[in-house]
Amino acid sequence: MAQYRHSVNESKPKSKTPHFRAKVSRSAPSHRVSDFWLKAIICLLLIVVTAGAYWHVIGCQFIESYDDQEYVTNNTAIASGLNAASLKWALTTFYASNWHPLTWISHIVDVQLFGLNPVGHHLVNLLLHILNALLLFTILSRLTQSIWKSAFVAALFAVHPLHVESVAWIAERKDVLSTMFWFIALWAYAAYVARPGVWRYMLIMAAFGAGLMSKPMLVSLPLTLLLLDYWPLGRLSVGWKKLIAEKIPLALMSAASCIVTMFAQQAGQAVATAGEIGLAHRLANAVVAYAAYIIKTVWPSRLAVLYPVFETHLLVWQIIGAAVLLAAISIGAVLSSRRRPYLLMGWLWYVITLIPVIGLVQVGSQSMADRYTYVTIIGLFIMAIWLIADIAADRIAWSRAIAATSVAIVCVLAVCTWRQVCVWQNSVTLFDHAIKVTPRNSIAHNNKGTGLVREGRMDEAIDELREAIKIQPEYGAAHNNLGVALVQTDHLDEGTRHLRIAAKLGMKTARVHQHIAEELVQKGEMDEAAEQCRLALKQDPDFGQAHFTLGMILGMKNKHKESLSHFKTAAKLAPNDALGRAMLAVAYFQTKDYESAWREAHRCRELGGDLSEGFVKDLTSAMPEPLLAGRK
Questions:
Q1: What is the pTM of this model?
Q2: 551, 564 in Cβ contact below 8 A?
Q3: Which residue in 20, 21, 106 sits closest to 71, CA to CA?
Q4: Which whole number is the average pLDDT over 475-493?
Q5: Residues forming a β-bridge with 271
Q6: Which of 14, 83, 180, 486 lies in the 20 to 30 Å Cα band around 361?
Q7: Cα distance between residue 585 and residue 597, in whole Å
Q8: Number of domains in the chain
Q9: Which of 404, 423, 442 delimits the end of a domain?
Q10: What mean pLDDT do residues 322-344 have?
Q11: 266: part of which helix (H) or strand (E)?
Q12: Among the residues of 55-81, which ranges form H helices?
C-alpha cells in the first residue's frame, strides 16, 4: 500500500500551477466523500441480503444429536454461566478434543445472556457472520482499491449456501468467531504495511492469537499474508527473505497452536490412526475433496452436515478426474501470473487454507465438511470476480450484462441459502436430509435416531438406529443409543445386549456405564448396577447422573452415609435439579439431620419440585417444619 502511494506521487506533474493545486484540493475530498457513501450503501445492502437469507435460522433449535449438546446444552461448565470457575475451565480444558478458550467463553456469555434459549445463540452467530462479510468488503476494497469487485466477493461470501453450516450450527461458533479475528488481523496487516511499526505488528499478533484461541484452523495466516504481499500489495521488491523474516513470529505462533491442537485431539482420541485410514486413502480423499469443494462452490447442491469417510469408497475415475482438474487450474494460474496475478494468489489462498482440514491428518469421521470452506473459498471468489471484470473491461455492453448476471447469481444463492437454513431446523430434519443426499451414512442414521428419541418417537428412532448398525456393525455409539432406546421401551434384555456390545467396542465412557447401570436398576440387579456407576465415576468423577444413581442404590441398601455423600455431590454438580434436591432431603432424613432435610425440601419446592406426602409427614413428625428467614 505504501508503494501504491509512492507510485501515485511520482505520476503527478513536476510543475504544479496554482490552478492544478486548486483542482486537486476541490476534487479529492469530493471523491473521498462519494466513495464513503458508496461503501456505506454497499454495507447496508450486505446486511439486508445476509439477514434475509439467514433470518430463518432464528427459529432453529439446538442440534443436540451432534455437538450442540457437548458444547452448550449438556455442558455443566457452560451452563453455570460467567464466573471464575467457568473461565478457568475455558482457559485450561481440552474438552471436545480442542483447545479454543475464546470459543468456550463466547458460549458461556451466551448462556449468561440467553440461558438455553437457542434464539439468542443463533442470533449471535448470524451477527458475527454479517460482521465478517462487512470486514471482508472493507479489507478487500482497501487493499485492492476496487470497490465493486470487493463488494461482489463479500456478497458471495455472505450468501453462499456452503456457509450455512458455519452460521446455523451453534457448535460452529468457532468458525465465525475465528474468522472475525482473521479479518481483523488482515486489517491490522494492511495498516502495518502502509506504516510499519512495532505496535501495529503487535496488533496483528494479538488478532492472530485471538483467532487461534477460537479455532486452530487459522494456522495458515502467515502464508496468506505472504500471498497478499504478492498481490494486491505488490511488495516483492522488498525481497522474499525480508518478507519471510517478517512473518517468523506469526509462524512460531502457528507452530505452537499445531502442537497444542495435536495434543488435545490425541488426548480426546479424535485423530484416526494409519491403521484405521491408510495414508493412500487420505491422499486420494484429499485430492477428491479439493475438487469437490470447487464443484460445490460453483453448483452448491446435495449439501450435507456430514460426508462420512468410513463409508466413502473412492472410484479411480474420481481420483483421476480430480487430479486433472487441480493440475489444470494450477498450470493456468501459474502461466497467467504475470498478466493476472490475482489468479495465482486466489488459487494458492484456496489450496493453503484448506491444508489444515483436508484430511492428511484425519480428525473425526468426515471426508470433507461444508464448514471448512468458510475462509477457503474466498480465494475462488477473488479469482472469479477479478477474471470476469478483466474480460469485461472496455466492453460496456458486456460489463452491464455481467453486472446484472452477478446480481442475479447473488440473489439465487441467497434463496438457496434460505432453503438450506430450513434443513437445520432440528436434529431430525438435518440428518434426514443428510440421509437423502449421502449414501450409507451410518452417523446420519444414528443422529436422526437420537433426535427422534428426544421427540419421543421411539419406534422410528429404533428403526433408524438399527439401520445405522446394519451399515456399520461395529458402530459403538449406535449400539449404545439403540440399547438406551430399547431399555426405555421395556426391551430390557435386548437393550442390555446392545449396551454391553457398545462397551466391548470401546464405548467405555461414563455415559455408557451409566446407561447400563440404569438398565440394571430396572432389572433389580443392584450390586452390578452400583459397580457400573463406580466405573462411570472412574471415567468422569464429576458425572452427576452417576452420583445420583449410586446414591439411590446405596440408600436402598441402607448405606445412608455413603448415599448422602453421593447425593450431595450430585446436587453440587446440578444445583437446580429439583429431583436431586428431593433425594438429598431424603438422604438427610435417613441420617437424622432433619434441619438439613427441611432446607433441601424447601429448595426442592422453590425449584418447582414435589415431595411425597408420606415423606413430608414423617419429616414433620421428626421435626416440625421451621419457618424460613423472611417468611411471614
A1: 0.83
A2: yes
A3: 106
A4: 89
A5: 363
A6: 180
A7: 4
A8: 2
A9: 423
A10: 97
A11: helix 248-267
A12: 68, 76-79
